[in-house]
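Per reviewer request, we include the raw input and output of the structure prediction for the construct analysed in the revised manuscript.
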Amino acid sequence: MDISLVIPLYNEAESLTPLHEWIVRVMDKHAFSYEIVFVDDGSTDASWQVICDLKTQHPDTVRAIRFRRNYGKSAALYCGFRAVRGEVVITMDADMQDSPDEIPELYRMIREDGYDLVSGWKQKRFDNRLTKNLPSKLFNATARRVTGIPLHDMNCGLKAYRQEVVKNIEVFSEMHRYIPYLAKNAGFTKIGEKVVQHRKREFGVSKFGLNRFVNGYLDLMTLWFLNRFGKQPMHFFGLVGSLMFLIGLIAVIVVAAMKLHALANGVPAMLIGVNPYFHIAILMMILGCMLFLAGFLGELIIRNSQSRNDYLIREELN
């Protein structure tokens, strides 16, 4: 099979049929063998019924997964990636803001140019400039700096992957924003970018608010930390804890030495117990011990745990 399309959705009943028709026209025109995997992320509208109708009409090309509740886009992509069978996997949003006409070129870049992953770049957007464009630019600038991947639109839903990539990355929490970084950390370093068309939303309303930018920064810091120290937390907590303990110990020794020197010379000096520097030093020693212990416990947990993602799938159409 040439292409697997993974389309996560939440309350997009109105757009599913025209989106499917558009995809079919593109696939038939280029004679691709393909499958479309819809992942219904707990929709409360008629989305699942529309998908069932599409499955009835196109049993060989439409597949679907339905969650019992809304888990988020990362969970939808994770389960969609586990299900795909095509050599090239393409993700797109269900709101028709991504154009299926981009599919042939994305496929070519994976198959002929040898990219592991190609990310779309919506260079010209039709979103509100103040609430979406400017925060998005700041977010992507930070992401480029932290990840070292020169993508202009890392969070673009329109992406293409070699199948090997999606089978070897784990999309968890809200980390769908950073799939290129996850791929890079897994050893897939040939990552490209393609300018794609951004279309105005025709149906429904956006499911994302300004809070996604705040959460995006926090997720980026989490991912950076996990990449650097996720397998060896002692390298971070142990180092910081040891430094804090050492500084606190030196400070205690200095405070005690100053007190002894004052007593030896008959100079009045503050009691050690009421000296604020003494209490700060003791606090640093305690915090240092706690951080060191946190790193030690982290190492024990990592060595005795297995990564699991348990999403309750309500129905699946194959």
